[in-house]
Design goal:
Bound molecules: 2-acetamido-2-deoxy-beta-D-glucopyranose
Helix content: 25-40%
Number of helices: 13
Oligomer: single chain
């Protein structure tokens, strides 16, 4: 069980105990909101509370989200998106306004337990081509100055969640760790600044991505079962990639004179769909393994002790860009509508299992499917499917994914229905020329699992040949506020 540190101190003894052992107040979770149909923030806050998740990391400072967190005592890391960095870097006034609106006000009027401001999100990723190299550090400085001016700098710390690609170890041994050469000076300036201000270094570590990008990556090394051939770093054996990667950072910090800088794992997790290695079994194994790994407070070879971490992610986000890969929309330990995907013991509840979201409202049970009379060789099929997938979500179709074994009609229906549900079952969204129809009965040949609630529409296609996890099509009865980014349907083969 994780210790929780109650901020209301009853006795000095408790305070002392806490200062010794309550460095980590349990596992945190990332709460992303790029969904076509987000759950109401109050529902998500209840989900966090029901599951004993005491810390949450956000990617922006949405008013409704923060208001829902008010009074919950859940520790909050608010986020500043990368596209705001340049304005905050360029203007102290803008930073003060940001802090006043998005931090001070929520602490004072809404009783939100804001503890960190995440300035930018992985701004030095190599795919950004250096777009944020000039603005991240000045934005960090301005936000910190604004926090000081607002009298909040003891309570609220700045940090900058970085991808693990900001440091490297040329031949893979953690002890070789140092910051990437192209950003070495910048990293040192940031690290010094964090250290001077008592702020933590935040890093996102993803063994899944290593496996995804490198076909020769030793699978077992991604997990925590100790089955991998260890990496022997001058006598220290590393049995999993997380420890090795984490300690590469510790070495990089140490080498540059900041060996004691606190580290937060800003994101860690495993997706369940959209790639052959993204499945329930691996995700459960990784996340449960990580929880067991950190629960004893053993830490890593270079940093024994508790590890402060935020799982990525709480809920699936069907409107995320699939540029990184089709798995990008499937990182949640919960589905988009708050159902537990697999058994995971976070050590925070008595039952030891994930508790689903309560009082979720759905649209009617109806679907848009391919008409039985429509022909597979109709020339409109391919453009219709590609249109639907481009604007909806077909990431559960494809090699090795949960709906990868559907037949041709299944594929086409999946695409049509995804488009239809994302458009809130609008009649006009099921008008694929002579190809589609709305049905209230289970489409033939499909095994449907409809959730027990009458108002629910939850279509889990699980054809006998389809793999063991099934796939869901759905619609929540709320409209989206995010624009849908086109998905790459090129990897999906349709007749
Ligand atoms: C507060 O945060 C929101 C959400 O990230 C952002 O849209 C808004 O511009 C911020 N307010 C100010 C005054 O910067
Ligand atoms: C980065 O550069 C590459 C190649 O020049 C380009 O294709 C890509 O769109 C750029 N990305 C960004 C975020 O600017
Ligand atoms: C199911 O629907 C009923 C209304 O028909 C509602 O009262 C109930 O809260 C719903 N249950 C869930 C789990 O959503
Ligand atoms: C259905 O789509 C999947 C994923 O693209 C593909 O592998 C499969 O071959 C398709 N099935 C048929 C019968 O076209
Ligand atoms: C739909 O089918 C009808 C009758 O088969 C045909 O006349 C019409 O042109 C078709 N429409 C489209 C858009 O293909
Ligand atoms: C969603 O938005 C559209 C257009 O803004 C509106 O017509 C529709 O009624 C909304 N649906 C729901 C479920 O709120």
């Amino acid at each position: 069980m994780m210790m929780r540190c109650f901020s209301v101190s009853v006795t000095f003894g408790l305070v002392l105990l806490c200062s010794l052992v309550c460095v980590v107040s349990g596992i945190g979770a990332n709460w992303g909101t790029q969904l076509s149909h987000p759950l109401p923030p109050e529902t998500v806050v209840n989900l966090l509370r029901d599951n004993g998740i005491q810390k949450v990391k956000l990617f922006d400072a949405d008013y409704g989200t923060l208001r829902a967190l008010g009074g919950s005592n859940i520790e909050v890391m608010v986020g500043i998106p990368n596209d705001m960095l340049s304005s905050l870097a360029g203007s102290m006034k803008a930073a003060e306004k940001w802090v006043a609106t998005n931090v001070s006000k929520h602490i004072s009027s809404n009783n939100v337990n804001i503890r960190y401001v995440a300035v930018g999100n992985e701004p030095f990723l190599q795919t950004y081509n250096g777009s944020f190299l000039k603005t991240t550090f000045p934005a960090l400085q301005n936000v910190q100055s604004a926090l000081i001016k607002a009298g909040l700098s003891n309570q609220v710390k700045v940090t900058c969640p970085l991808n693990a690609d900001v440091y490297e170890a040329p031949s893979g041994y953690p002890s070789e760790g140092d910051f990437r050469t192209d950003i070495h000076d910048l990293m040192l300036a940031i690290v010094k600044f964090l250290s001077d201000n008592g702020a933590p270094f935040t890093v996102n570590i993803y063994p899944f991505i290593s496996l995804y990008t490198d076909a020769n990556f030793p699978v077992e090394y991604a997990f925590f079962d100790g089955n991998a051939q260890p990496v022997n770093d001058g006598g220290t054996n590393y049995y999993n990639m997380f420890d090795a990667n984490h300690d590469t950072l510790v070495h990089a910090l140490q080498k540059n004179g900041y060996g004691n800088l606190p580290i937060i794992i800003g994101e860690i997790g495993w997706p369940t769909d959209g790639d052959q290695n993204a499945n329930m079994e691996y995700a459960r194994r990784f996340n449960q393994g990580f929880m067991s790994h950190i629960t004893g407070g053993k830490g890593t070879p270079m940093r024994p002790g508790p590890i402060d971490a935020y799982l990525f992610s709480l809920i699936d986000e069907d409107a995320k860009s699939v540029d990184p890969g089709n798995f990008e929309r499937h990182w949640g330990i919960f589905t988009f509508d708050g159902r537990a995907k697999y058994q995971l013991n976070l050590g925070t509840t008595n039952s030891g299992v994930l508790i689903p979201a309560r009082s979720v409202h759905y649209l009617e049970k109806k679907w848009c499917v391919m008409k039985p009379s429509a022909r597979l060789d109709d020339p409109q099929v391919a453009p219709s499917v590609s249109y639907a997938c481009g604007l909806a979500d077909c990431t559960q179709l494809g090699y090795g994914t949960s709906c990868g074994n559907l037949d041709a009609r299944g594929n086409i229906s999946y695409a049509f229905n995804s488009y239809y549900q994302i458009h809130n079952q609008l009649e006009a969204a099921c008008k694929f020329p002579n190809l589609s129809m709305v049905t209230k009965t289970d489409p033939s040949g499909w095994k449907l699992h409809i959730s027990d609630n009458d108002s629910a529409i939850l279509w889990r296609c699980r054809k006998e040949r389809a793999n063991r996890f099934g796939c869901g099509l759905y619609s929540l009865g709320t409209n989206n506020s995010v624009s849908f980014e086109a998905s790459d349907s090129s990897s999906i083969i349709f007749p």
